[in-house]
Amino acid sequence: MEFYSLFIKIKQILINPSNFFENVKKETGIKQSFIYLMVLSLFSTVLGLVVGQSLQNYYYNLVARVFGFSFPQPKYTIGILILFAFIGYLVILLSSFIMAGILHVWILIFGGKEEYAKTYQLYVYSKTPRFIVGWIPFVTYLTWIYDLVLLIIGTQKIHNISRTKSILMYVIPIVLIISLLLVLAFFVFYVIKSNPQIFQNLTQQKV
Predict the structure, then answer these.
(1) The domain containing residue 109 runs over which residues?
(2) Largest CA distance in the chain
């Protein structure tokens, strides 16, 4: 995939997703979308590694201020960090087939008629915002919203599912999941704040 054609595809997805997903119906197989995933996920992985390491001290200090005590900060060599990043990169590539499969079954439940390859394309292309700017701290949360918008539009265009159904089939389960995670997060936060000595003892034992 040439750099210029890749740039054009990214631009179309981000600026005119409705037209892009309408035209992607002509794309056959998963080869183009998989190469697209390989390139963008590599870009995101490399920048994520660099930014993550640069802000590591900031994150640990932030956690210490929030909970009132510090956790031991692990030290890794550059070789180990690159290995972790490479493993993460492979996980993104391999898990894309599984996640697209789960998405495909979900879409079929709601009346989708297209084959798995079209859902794979939908899955990959709808993640474009996350790959492009998701490695930027805090901005990544906004990319999740844009990913969802692209997923809804793509489902409409590729699988010919109505706008209302496309919105509800994603938004309702996401709201339920987020609600459960928030309850769990508040519970964990409360336990840690109420019993800091337990976690301090555990971290000291590990050190």
Answers:
(1) 3-206
(2) 60
Instruction: Say if residues 146 and 110 touch (Cβ distance below 8 Å).
Output: no
DSSP codes joined into one string, the chain: --HHHHHHHHHHHHH-HHHHHHHGGG--SSHHHHHHHHHHHHHHHHHHHHHHHHTHHHHHHHHHHHHSSPPP-----HHHHHHHHHHHHHHHHHHHHHHHHHHHHHHHHTT--S-HHHHHHHHHHTTHHHHHHTTSTTHHHHHHHHHHHHHHHHHHHHH---HHHHHHHHHHHHHHHHHHHHHHHHHHHHHHHH-HHHHHHHHHHH-
- Number of structural domains found in the chain: 1
pLDDT digits (tens, 9 = 90+) for 73-127: 667 778 888 898 999 999 999 999 999 999 999 999 999 989 999 999 999 999 9
User: Which pLDDT value is given to residue 77?
Assistant: 77
**For position 78, what pLDDT does the model report?**
80
Contact between 19 and 12 (Cβ < 8 Å): yes
Mean pLDDT of the chain, nearest integer: 85
Q: Give the model's pLDDT for residue 135.
A: 83
- pLDDT the model gives residue 187: 81
* pTM score, whole prediction: 0.81
Query: What does the pLDDT read at residue 169?
Result: 94
